[in-house]
Amino acid sequence: MVSSSGLLVAIALFRVIVFTSLLSAEKTDSGILLVSDIKSGERHAREYCAMYDICGKRSDGEVLNCPYGSPSVKPDDLLSSKIQSLCPTISGNVCCTEFQFDTLRAQVQQAIPFLVGCPACLRNFLNLFCELSCSPDQSLFINVTSTSEVKGNMTVDGIDFFVTDTFGEGLYDSCKDVKFGTMNTRAIDFIGAGAKTFKEWFAFIGQKAAPGFPGSPYAINFKSSVPELSAMEIMNVSVLACDDTSLGCSCGDCPLSPACSSSEPPSPHKKDSCSFRIGSLKVTCVELSLVILYIILVSAFLGWGLFNQTRERRRHAPTTEPLLNVADDGEINIIDLQKNGKLAPKVQGMVSQASHDVQISVIQGYMSSFYRRYGIWVARNPTLVLCSSLAVVLLLCLGLMRFRVETQPEKLWVGPGSKAAEEKQFFDSHLAPFYRIEQLIIATMPDPQHGKSPSIVTEDNIQLLFEVQKKVDGISANYSGSVVSLSDICLKPLGQDCATQSILQYYKMDPDNYDGFGGVQHVEYCFQVT
């Protein structure tokens, strides 16, 4: 009996020692707690969180998540709608509080200007961090590997994020060619340090940023395979390609899209095709043959007409006698013919003989008869002819009622059914009509003695530009009874001011800032070549 009680005391003491040793093993000198995966069935399950709520802040104000696992929570309607606006793939329960979500939204806002040019890339990028922060199954693919103590509270210091290679490759492929328009370079150079693969990009994203620098407040180790005998799963959210029709990107941001592939170039001419050069002009044998055939046909036609004309002259030359030479005795002349109004019998006979000898074609005879009768009719009916002619002219001028002066260059140079017109109509209907640029270029006149233009960067010229800008801003016109000014139709991307690119922007477009900003020396410094 004594031995049995001693054995029970020994077992109880062993349990206390083991429990104490486990607690001491979890504490280190650096204050970092290594979290084991002993309760994998409890910690890594659906509708279970690996991190929930905020438990501390770094010295730079970056918040740190709590490392304690807990069941996912059903958000209220307001928070649910806010999460849906940024993370449409997450519904139902979530693993983030409203403060956590606001922090997530503020952090991803920094990357949106770089990726907004390609909606598919931006959607994939947001899905990655939405799943990391708010997914209800967060514990399935996130494992907290280390924690740190901040002001007495344990906070997350490092995690393992299990993501499939398919998602990583899809995310990188959709974003690798996205351009950052402001710098005219790839966006991946800014948000991925110029990563060449998705693994390099994930390594850059997962780096723990030092206090005061942008980046993740804790280390993120991206992995593509889960440990053996673990209840964890790899996150495999659907990824959108950059050529997706619902969230398609422009050809500049997704050049590999089938819609952006250029048409096949025309097949090159065969090497044995007949061609030769005439000076700097390359001519094919077919083109030369057509030119020669055209010259032969034109020459044959002109030769045939010349031949017929010469033959007719030769045939009628011996039998035709001038009418003025008919009177052998000199009794008939032009004046007598005009006075008497009739021809002498001898002349009439010669005219009849000449008319009989000259043979005209059927077409010439018809045209001669028609225009003779038409001339007689016009001479007898002048009023009717003038009125009918005026009526025809007025009728043809009715089209002027629909005449409109076209001032849009895209309608002057592009056909309404062309591919370019269809693309512009699609752009205008889905975004907004593209702005038109009006330019005013000012230059100095060359010096007549030296032939060189003086510098345009002078105080007088800058003051002149202020006056010109003031007149341009004051431009107005009367349109349909209302006064329209430049500010009513100009592009205003940043507020109430018209978008203007001018040297005057160095002075904020205000002449009162000229002296305070250094005058002409300020512009000269900006224009100097380094």
From TrEMBL:
**Main location (coarse class):** membrane
Gene Ontology CC, one term: membrane
Domain NPC1 middle luminal residues, every copy: 424-514
Q: Which UniProt keywords apply?
A: Membrane, Signal, Transmembrane, Transmembrane helix
The UniProt transmembrane annotation reads 288-307, 382-401
Q: How does it sit in the membrane?
A: Multi-pass membrane protein
Q: Name one GO biological process term.
A: sterol transport
Instruction: Please list which residues make up the signal peptide.
Output: 1-25
Q: Name one GO molecular function term.
A: sterol binding
Domain of life of the organism in this record? Eukaryota
Niemann-Pick C1 N-terminal domain location: 47-282
Q: Where does the record say this protein resides?
A: Membrane
Name this polypeptide is given = Niemann-Pick C1 N-terminal domain-containing protein
What organism does this protein naturally occur in?
Answer: Carya illinoinensis
Write the lineage as a comma-separated list.
Eukaryota, Viridiplantae, Streptophyta, Embryophyta, Tracheophyta
